[in-house]
Amino acid sequence: MEKLHLLAEKLGIATEFCDAGMTRCKYKADDNILKFFAWQFGCHTCTEDEVTESLRQLEEKRWHRAVEAVYVCNENNIGFDIIVPSGFEEEYIDVAFKAQEGKKSFDVSYDVIDNGESRIIGKERLNRLQINITSPLPIGYYNVEIKIGHSKYRTVVAVAPKTCYENPALEKGRLWGFSIQLYALQSEHNWGVGDFSDLYDFVGICKNCGANAIGLNPLNVLQHNFPEEASPYASISRLFLNPIYIDVSSVPEFSLEDILPYNTELEDIRKQKQIAYGRVYPLKIKVLEKLYQRFLAYGTPQRRKDFEKFCKEKGQDLDCLCAFQALSEVKSQGKWSSWRSWEEEYKNVYSPEIEEFCEEHAERINFFKFLQFEAERQFARAAKRCEELGLAIGFYRDLAVGVGQDSAEVWSRPELFFENAGAGAPPDAFFPAGQKWGLGAFNPQSLKDDAYQAFIKILRANMSHAGALRIDHVMGLLRLYIIPDDKEVGTYIYYNLEDMLNLVALESQLQKCIVVGESIGNVPDGFLDSLYQKRIYSLSVLWSERYDSGWGDFMPPEAFAPYAFASVGTHDMAPLKMWWFGYDIELSHALGLIKSEQEKQGAYKKRENDRWKLLCALDKSGVWPEDRPRSGNFLYGEGYPEGIDEAVHRYMAKSASSVFLAQLEDILQVDKMQNLPGTDRDKHPNWRLKLPEKIERLESLEAFSRNVAAIRKER
After folding, report:
1. In the chain, fewer beta carbons within 10 Å around the N or the C end?
2. What is the pLDDT of residue 235?
3. Residue 40: which of 453, 491, 500, 446 has the closest Cα?
């Protein structure tokens, strides 16, 4: 249906797309997929007549409301349109701007432009006027009221800067830091999973060795009832923190006697090579419940006041999260249960039944609020330590591309998300059928109608206590591949990139937070230029910095993108030692990700060639340690090259990229992956691997000191 395709294109539904492979295969979206998403945008498409009518309604849609819910403008081009009945353009127009923050009113000058654009809707002729603000306004959000005759219209105008925030420290020279998975840290005191006190201590280690940034995995709250669902990229809310990172012993109400009954169990949990989420999280909750009761009975007046202030500031978002957690406890009864399977009255956050539930379970809900209060306090303490010790960037946080479809975020605002559909990835060479991530995805139309409030809150929450923010799968600001729940394939849905980038830049400047875009994957032509124009840093990963689409030589350090954060790999890639030996190839074959023996042997052959190319690149850059020069070609079976970790880190430190982040896994020669894409925990222990050394020993380790020295030769 030609008209169906036209409707889809006007709605921002891709009718065809390419994958990320070298051959760039093209795919056509099935008409049923197009109809599914058109329906989500409020369009009927069962018959050609319905499609025709939907096209007509879409053309007229803008004429049915005086103003849009929000206008996102650049500070040098502030303006908005307004639809008024014919004749109103002759009336006096008054425009009033009031800042949302501080409520200050601004007198603005403006031009009203009538381009003669009009349309008859029903029996009434409507005119479209453009109001251009000619006086400067500070960046920020404004509630705008327009008076024309006896009529009043209200909208929101977001005034965005030209670019994102740029840290002055990066103008003075290139910086470096570490990228860590907080849960993986081991220490003398933690409970078998890294915590905020470990992070606080790690800040001191960074200060001692000259590091200025600490890259972190997403820290958002996960399923309370099912702690083994541990992926930090599938949270239940991107607005709040994961209580598992609370250091129980640092809670003000804590006493050593509180853990005496659990010492034996704690010691056993600490000895486990993998994180025992199903044991450590319930144990923490058990002790924290006791501390909460102590807080209620004996908490200091100041601490009580701080708690009340926290709850008030977080408002309805906190109320919804904690009500969701309490409801999930009651509904699950130890068995997996999505809110989508709850009774209808419990799917509506504003229902009388929910209100009654919250009254009956107020104490439990307040306990969940206490967890968030304490997590925020401890994380803020670690961030303050960055400031006190002068780390130029401090925490470099990670914003996940989506949130679980079974999350509190979707439950509390389902109208903002696509119904019965989730974000994923299209087919490619590694996943011919594509990937279903099970992540809720914003409906771009609903998001704008809500004045982008949900998106703004997520940015603000994850920029909190951070000097930089990594936006995972930053292409999601332009488009997301979304799959109906009952299908295996979907299509791309497009967002308003200009609005999204302007909002990112606005929050970046308001929060003084650098923005980094993770753009590894299916990147549309011209997209990276759009990021650079907004001064969004890119990511440069050693394994991707190759000529000929990953088959050629490694790029020399000076050829790396200057406006970038560089690293050897990511949590989804094999660490250096694992890569060198090809253990990832063997693992992928064993798990069926590499299908045949022939394919496996081909992967080994390419890896051997890649290893040789890496050795040549290191040779050419002169980065081998003087006391550990390359002593051979290190074919398979010849062991791990002494000094290669130092050489690789010095190579990356020499890069033109503004920031280099070293992974502790590479320094400590870990040969296992934190996450193997395309697998669940029944096949691979994703998100569960502890680092092999405790942080108290790091600075005394030869490997640590030598790698730090190698980096500091160049930065």
Report:
1. N
2. 96
3. 446
